[in-house]
Design a protein that fits this description.
One of its GO terms (biological process) is proteolysis. Keywords: Aminopeptidase, Hydrolase, Manganese, Protease. InterPro entries: Leucine_aapep/pepB, Macro_dom-like, Peptidase_M17_C, Peptidase_M17_N_1. The chain has 15 helices and 19 strands. It starts with 12 loop residues before the first strand and ends with a helix. The longest helix is centred in the N-terminal third of the chain and has 18 residues. The chain has two domains: about 100 residues, Leucine Aminopeptidase, subunit E, domain 1 (3-Layer(aba) Sandwich); about 325 residues, Aminopeptidase (3-Layer(aba) Sandwich). The strands form four sheets. Strands 6, 7, 8, 9, 10, 13, 14, 15 and 17 form a nine-stranded mixed beta sheet that branches. Strands 2-3-1-4-5 form a five-stranded mixed beta sheet, sandwiched between helices. Helix 4 links the parallel strand 4 and strand 5. The protein is elongated and about 80 Å long. By secondary structure, it is of the alpha/beta class.
Length: about 450
């Protein structure tokens, strides 16, 4: 991935950052033609508003981006994502910015510059930013997010279990990590629910197991890797399949987070588990009312083959629980109920750990990666207990779907556990968040690691 960063010795043009409150004072210190130009074009320092400043030859010599008001900044993440509005060339930040504002501006620029160009050249862009001193960590964050977006945006024809494995192997090779893969008969015997969900497809299921780091606390990330979800025999309507290439968004997000952790060389023993499957329709597909026996030994009645994500995650979480870990986090595009509850911007998470919940909420705000806690509401436990088996993968009634899914997963997790039910998609263009695949929760987790794991 090639982030839009200038070479260190590049000659760059200034990009001034000016807030609405300080605009008049700033204009007073500028040459009269600059002040007249900005006033004449109606520039008021609005958040993200960009104006090019012409030089003596008429070509852009500098640019100004509005920093808005404090109220506007609270409402908009990455209002300084100017990359898409600037002409090609090299730029550097100017203006009186706090370290926090500078970091937001740099990360907003890098995230806003993302384009998915695998199948078609994209117009615009070409602006590069000279990285300010002290912002090297932001490069790792942006690279992780770009990786996540690329994986989610890739159509399922080119991002099946084979390709997801290849992407994981490439990440492992880049950072000297070890990847092992369980497939075929070993998968059937050791991970029966992963095998059952993926067996309906000719693109064979597997479990990816990446390990990195020899010292420090142990962090296990489990990501849902359903590369396409037809719903299985409980077939989705056509409209509901349109975004199902993103049903591996949990896997894409944990790989992006792993990229951040490894690039920053954090003192962590990292493990990433991804059940990579395609939920398809065939004579081998698992059926409604089948009862599956999980890796943990718990039996599960299948009351909807479209609730497959929790099945594959359950076997992976059971494996994770067999080895001591200081923290286990699962991430999945799991339920429509989560989207109804909080919409596409927020990443809801579940945990019984109060300190972890507070750390994630604080880090989400700091990292401009908002998260919101939902409860493991134990009075709903009977809803996932069908009587004929230990567990029900799709309780009737349609209420509290995100919570019952999280309660289901908790039955398989061990130790300190956090579950994220993410959307993984940006419905329309927004500052720093182009329409399409989107990581959620990864930066919040990274920002919380000092509290969560003491690193």
């Amino acid at each position: 991935m090639n982030l839009p960063l200038s070479p260190p010795n590049a000659t760059s043009r200034p990009l001034y950052v000016v807030g609405a409150e300080g605009l008049q004072a700033w204009l007073a210190g500028q040459p009269a033609p600059v002040a007249a130009w900005l006033s004449g074009t109606g520039f008021a320092g609005g958040l993200g508003d960009v104006r090019l400043l012409p030089g003596p030859d008429g070509a852009p010599a500098a640019a100004v981006i509005g920093h808005g008001t404090a109220a506007a900044r609270r409402r908009t993440r990455f209002g300084l994502a100017a990359a898409a509005q600037l002409p090609q060339g090299d730029w550097h930040l100017e203006g009186t910015l706090t370290d926090e504002e500078r970091d937001e501006a740099v990360l907003g620029f890098l995230l806003g510059a993302y384009r998915f160009t695998r199948y078609r050249a994209q117009t615009g862009g070409g602006a590069r930013l000279k990285l300010p001193e002290g912002c090297e960590r932001l490069v790792a964050l942006a690279e992780g997010e770009w990786l996540t977006r690329d994986l989610i945006n890739t159509p399922s024809a080119d991002m099946g279990p084979d390709e997801l494995e290849a992407a994981t192997a490439a990440l492992a090779a880049r950072h000297g990590a070890h990847l092992s893969v369980t497939r075929d008969e070993a998968l059937r015997e050791g991970f029966p629910m992963i095998h059952a969900v993926g067996d309906g497809s000719d693109r064979r299921p597997r479990l990816l197991d990446l390990r990195w780091g020899a010292n420090g606390p142990a962090l296990t990330l489990v990501g849902k890797g359903v590369c396409f979800d037809t719903g299985g025999l409980d077939l989705k309507p056509a409209a509901s399949m349109l975004l199902m290439k993103k049903d591996m968004g949990g896997a894409a997000t944990v790989l992006g987070l792993a990229q951040m952790i490894m690039a920053l060389n954090l003192p962590i023993r990292l493990r990433v588990l991804i059940p990579a499957v395609e939920n398809s329709v065939s004579g081998r597909a698992f059926r409604p009312k089948d009862i599956l026996t999980s890796r943990k030994g718990l039996t599960v009645e299948v009351n909807n083959t479209d609730a497959e994500g929790r099945l594959v995650l359950a076997d992976a979480l059971a494996l994770a629980a067999e080895e001591a870990s200081d923290l286990t986090i699962s991430m999945a595009t799991l339920t429509g109920a989560a989207r109804v509850a909080v919409g596409p911007d927020l990443a809801p998470f579940f945990t019984d750990d109060e300190a972890a919940a507070a750390a994630l909420a604080d880090a989400g705000t700091e990292m401009r990666d908002p998260v919101w806690r939902l409860p493991f509401w134990e009075p709903y436990e009977p809803m996932i207990e069908p009587g004929i088996a230990d567990l029900d993968n799709a309780p009737a009634g349609g209420m509290a779907g995100a919570i019952t899914a999280a309660l289901f997963l908790r039955r398989f997790a061990g130790g300190r556990y956090v579950h994220f039910d993410i959307y993984g998609h940006q419905p329309g263009d927004a500052p720093g968040r182009p329409k399409g695949g989107a990581g959620q929760g990864a930066r919040a987790i990274l920002g919380a690691l000092p509290t969560l794991l003491g690193v």
